Amino acid sequence: MAVASEPPGAYRAAVVHRFREPLTIDQVPAPELAPGQVRVKVEASGLCHTDIHAAHGDWPVKPNPPFTPGHEGVGIVTELGPGAIEVAVGDRVALPWLAYACGVCDYCVSGRETLCLQQRNMGYSIDGGFGEYASAFARYVVRVPEGIDPLDAAPLTCAGVTMYKAVKVGGTRSTDLVAVFGVGGLGHLAIQYAAIAGGHVVAVDLFDEKLELARELGAEFTVNANKEDPAEAIQRLGGANQALAIAASPKAFAQAYGSLRRGGTLVFVGLPADNRVELPIFETVLGAINMVGSIVGTRTDLREVFQLHGAGKTRLIREVRPLDSVNESMADVEAGKVAARVVFEL
Ligand code: NAD
Ligand code: ZN
Ligand code: ZN
Predict the structure, then answer these.
(1) Atom of ligand 1 nearest to the CA of 47
(2) pLDDT at residue 1 tops 90
(3) Same-domain status, 203 and 238
(4) Rounded to an integer, what distance in angstroms lies between the CA atom of residue 193 and that of residue 189?
(5) 169 and 62: one domain?
(6) Are 171 and 273 within one domain?
(7) Model-level pTM?
(8) Tens-digit pLDDT profile for residues 233-250
(9) With a 6 A CB cut-off, is 316 part of the ligand 1 pocket?
(10) Which of 19, 118, 150, 167 is deepest in the core (most CB within 10 A)?
């Protein structure tokens, strides 16, 4: 049995003090653990585009600065708060977006905990994984199985679970054509989960390097949206059964809609700052188009994601960087200069 280590007095973490201003790396005092919480020594933490939206205050519901982003943290439990019984000191755990849910509402008890109205979110309403330590609710962390590299587990904790769930929600079946709009952190895993479900993948992005990567990861077709209209190109393939709108751009959502065949499903995943998209009513009705939002995934989904990775079915494309590069890394993600995911090693 592992022995709890001394609580840290203070530790280094990346902090947003004001929206749209650079983050600073501060010494932050270690908070006392609330009932049910554990302290985790973070080993790896992925940079999701959501962290950039958080740091910019892009969305209708905003975090309250100062705060530490990060909802792809992975690390080792070092200390148990009062009543934390779900994990033990020494366990390796993932700290996902769903940091806390009530456990008793209709959503929680029907396997839809990510819809809980009492939820708290890692790196948004509570401090996240961009630090040497983080505190988390033991009931909502997910154990990382032995043999999975924490640098791989990190991007699986949001990008992986989100796209695994989105493919489930879209209902991909073998022989379906799945259009993946945006081959970034989420998209590079979307291609793999769609293929695991038996789908054929057409990937869309603005950069040829991303499309090359998409092909390496199993996409059969690719479209550069800067060079041709992806909706037309995908219609020439017969139209998509599911289109996964991941890129943080309303234009990509409209094109994803336009790429569908009749009866197809548009899955909303990306969360652009520009919160509107215009879609036609007539074509939606006559084409019996489905539209559905998909928000991260449950603890069960994340367990399944780890199981698939442990079985060798997924591959992470990631650039390992120090936390000090947080501002530069956010700028690189926004510029499309990152091969899929940046993972901070702590
Ligand atoms: P990312 O920056 O890693 O990837 C986005 C990709 O989209 C990039 O490769 C970029 O080149 C491409 N792109 C940009 N504009 C495009 C366009 N018009 N057409 C085609 N491709 C385009 O971002 P990410 O981390 O994968 O996150 C994507 C979005 O998903 C963000 O808005 C994020 O907040 C959101 N998100 C949603 C959930 C959820 O649960 N629904 C979970 C995590 C992230
Ligand atoms: Zn995320
Ligand atoms: Zn609930």
Answers:
(1) 25
(2) no
(3) yes
(4) 6
(5) no
(6) yes
(7) 0.98
(8) 999 999 999 999 999 999
(9) no
(10) 167
User: In this structure, which amino acid lies at residue 158?
Assistant: C
Question: Residue 207 belongs to what domain range?
Answer: 160-293
Give yes or no: residues 58 and 110 share one domain. Answer: yes
Ligand nearest the Cα of residue 246 is 1
- Mean pLDDT calculated for residue range 187-205: 98
In a domain, 33, yes or no: yes
DSSP 55-116: HHT-SSS---SSB---S-EEEEEEEE-TT--SS-TT-EEEE-SEEE--SSSHHHHTT-GGG-
The confidence band for 7, taking pLDDT boundaries of 50, 70 and 90, is confident
Q: Give yes or no: residues 23 and 136 share one domain.
A: yes
Higher pLDDT, 7 or 180: 180
Tokens standing for residue 259 = 């790429």
What is the CATH number for 69?
A: 3.90.180.10
Residue 4's pLDDT band (cuts 50, 70, 90): low
Q: How many domains does the chain have?
A: 2
pLDDT score at 6: 74
Q: Is the CB of 185 under 6 A from ligand 1?
A: yes
Report how far residue 129's alpha carbon sits from residue 38's, in angstroms, rounded to the nearest whole number: 13
User: Which tokens hold the place of 204?
Assistant: 């869309």
CB 276 within 8 A of CB 254: no
Residues in the chain: 346
Same domain, residue pair 228 and 192? yes
